[in-house]
Automatic annotation (TrEMBL):
Its EC number is 3.2.1.22. SUPFAM superfamilies: (Trans)glycosidases. The lineage of its organism: Bacteria, Bacillati, Bacillota, Clostridia, Eubacteriales. Residues 30-286 form the Glycosyl hydrolase family 36 N-terminal domain. It comes from Clostridium saccharoperbutylacetonicum N1-4(HMT). The active site is at 479 (nucleophile), 549 (proton donor). This is Alpha-galactosidase. It catalyses: Hydrolysis of terminal, non-reducing alpha-D-galactose residues in alpha-D-galactosides, including galactose oligosaccharides, galactomannans and galactolipids.
Amino acid sequence: MAIKYSEKSREFHLYNKEISYIIKILDNNQLGNLYYGKRIHHKESFSYLLEGGMRPLAAYVFEGDTNFSLQHTRQEYPSYGTTDFRYPAFEIKQKNGSKITCFEFEAYNIFKGKKKLEKLPATYVENEIEAQTLEIILYDKLIKTRLVLSYTIYKDLPVIARNAKFLHEGKEEIVLTKAMSCSLDLPDYDYEMVHLAGAWSRERHVKIKSLEQGVQSIYSLRGTSSAEHNPFIALKRPNTTEFEGEVYGLSLVYSGNFLGEVLVDTHGTSRIMLGIHPNMFEWRLKENERFQTPEVVMVYSDKGLNGMSQVYHKLYRSRLARGFWRDKVRPILINNWEATSFDFNEERILKIAKAAKDLGIELFVLDDGWFGERNNDKAGLGDWYVNTKKLPAGIVGLSKKIEEIGMKFGLWFEPEMVNKDSKLYRSHPDWIIHTPNRTASHCRNQYILDFSRKEVIDYIYEAMSKVLREASISYVKWDMNRYMTECYSVVKIAENQGKVMHEYILGVYSLYEKLTSEFPYILFESCSSGGARFDPGILYYAPQGWTSDNTDAVERMKIQYGTSFVYPISSMGAHVSEVPNQQVFRTTPLETRAKVAYFGAFGYELDLNNLSKKEREIVKRQVEFMKAKRELIQKGIFYRLVSPFENNINSWMVVAEDKSEAVVGYYKILNTANDGFKRIKLQGLDSNKKYYINEDKQNAFFGDELMFAGIPVKQEELCNNGGDFSSIIYYLKEE
Ligand code: DGJ
């Protein structure tokens, strides 16, 4: 890994074994991009890659010259209004109303390691030899503002992490009306855009479309990253598959409003931008104030979509997620939500916990409804003290009893919310986000607390930490069940209202930071009406998230398959729930429900007392299986084999880093009469090693046989007699 600068050519070359990224200081002192992709040899200059020339209607930078126009130049962090008419990476409104800027190269900095981002989550290094960082400092002398563009290249991963920072020194204030985290110009548009879209209970479905001239975008203006879109875009070549071919991934480490867009211009170049959505964003900078954008993590892979995902998994599991639980296998939990909803008392809870303990489950999670007057979704949010009518011994007493049974205890909170029917709202009606003299819309009868205000966060911190200090709590589920409307903070002056949505998310991060620092051994699981805030920003604080409220095994295959494009298996909460499924009313076999959920942070979400003796035996075996295999599944290398979006079959597998063992999941969605023979071809094994399957030590197969000839899938080995929703798990062990 190196970052080289040539004084002569004024070029920076960042490279490691797999990638090269080349930046040039242009003749007008702004920054151009010469190359980003597979590693190429280092040379003093790649200036021949800078294209230019005369074109009708183009505007040119230098008087008398008809060659150099920013419109034709691939740039690093472009502005609008001089010679480039495409969408810009940033916009600064000045006192005289102008938005024209000119940021020119001033200096650069190359150092080992990676700096922390102020108040924001970001990838990190544990040792400074793991990465190197280039900071390029640009200056606009008219407005006296510095722009620092930061690029970190990791030594052993094809990753460049980018962010931008504005430092204003002028006496006249400026207003940032757009500040994307990165912009990337590529020389052609022969790509397909891959992104993850959906809705509640249909999160992160894979969408792929060809690029066309114009703008194609994804976004959230919902105050969270949302279930509708995920802050991730990949551009792949049309012939790129899961296993081969070029792909560029861009993932934003942020949990609030975002915009991701790909602009294909009239001459067939592509500009990809990702960052905070400019709508609802306006950030005033007075003298000596600064603004830091969130980070974008760019991955280049020539090993297909799986290649890209495996890089994200490794980086996000080990250098984004943090803390005690980062490298630990996750406890197998039981959550009472789908079993009881709000309708429980201590006796019912203990009964569920006891049955779970008998089957080997390790952690009991008490969900919504334990506090205030929370008997339905109309009241109680904000009142974080126990409802002793339901739980006479309190959370302290209940947690003790659960631990006496032999399980750990976890608790649900929804820290950012309040019901009007609550003590908190009655004491502080002005703490909610609302616009004065306008109706405040509700969602699920709840309102959002103004987390852009420190006193509100301090209050919630005190309330939560009191519960966490007093009782014996090993896990917290942090929920967030609505999108933001009528966004306005009553304590801010008019000019600062454009800060509220970003400051809100910074407030959420600050509360997470305080709680995770004070309670380092508690495992935090994020949640947002299922997976509506499942993003890299939250992963920095909570190493796992509830993937979706949809626990139907068939629907879950698509959700987990899509989520795996960016997020590691260890981050995906995945539970076995009752049938008919509460979201889609489908009845799938207990075996298949578990075989899907194994590929995640595994658990149960039902009352096991309602199962037959035979079913409870099955659950016991599932728990044993997961305990034996979770180290491999949660830390191994994940491969998507067959997509449920295009097939009646879904298949995926995890291989140990040393290739000594693997677990394969194969799922048939609907049965077909008189179907053909099926084979599943595996990935990632060692061609020269021999593996036996499912303890059948008499028959061993070379890795190459399993990868190139494949395993013939035997109908009779699938659960449910090979009928609808049947499945099989193959466990491979080196001989
Ligand atoms: C939404 C979550 O996704 C569910 O798992 C559950 O915690 C409910 N909220 C509780 O209100």
